Amino acid sequence: MSLIPSFFCNRRSNIFDPFSLDVWDPFKDFDFPSLSSSSFPQLCRENSAIVNTRVDWKETPEAHVLKADLPGLKKEEVKVEIEDDGVLQISGERHVEKDKNDTWHRVERSSGKFSRRFRLPENVKMDHVKASMENGVLTVTVPKVETKKLVTKSVEISG
User: Fold this and answer.
1) Rg for the chain (alpha carbons), in Å?
2) What is the pTM of this model?
3) For residue 115, which of 50, 45, 66 has the smallest C-alpha distance?
4) Following DSSP, what letter does each residue of 31-50 receive, concatenated?
């Protein structure tokens, strides 16, 4: 049994997807508690929001459309940003409902900060990106640059 998957909270990324830019630095903002520490399970639980933010990306003839499941979040709690180098970032934070008087028997819903990054192809209009949120689903539409159709012109051969 390997300790690495449990140490990194079962975080898996797809290194074979050329459009995925899930930049995850395992050393950033962590003080690396020991495996026997009582705060370690809490660390995994709070960061599981990063893992559970699922995004679908489809390409249509007119645009690239990304849909992210963000149940329970309001549009004010989510940020969509585009960096100059063509990277689209979706980020936000899910807050934990904590009441000192309550006794929790099970906590399965993820909480904490999340961030997903995607490198956009070069054929998009980055200044025309639109985002909308409905029923906990964020939809980001990135229109494509219109490609000119090649016009073939016959040239008469003299002689």
Assistant:
1) 22
2) 0.60
3) 50
4) ----TT-TTHHHHHHHHHHH
The CA distances from residue 107 to 41, 51, 145, in Å, are 12, 16, 45
Q: Measure the CA–CA gap between 55 and 90, rounded to whole angstroms.
A: 10
Q: Are 47 and 110 in contact (CB under 8 A)?
A: no
pLDDT, tens digit, 9 for 90 and up, residues 27-78 = 666 565 544 444 444 444 444 454 568 899 999 999 999 999 998 889 999 9
Place of tokens 């040239």: 155
| CB-CB contact of 107 with 88 (8 Å) | no
Q: Token pair for residue 131? A: 């985002």
- Return the structure tokens found at 145: 């640059």
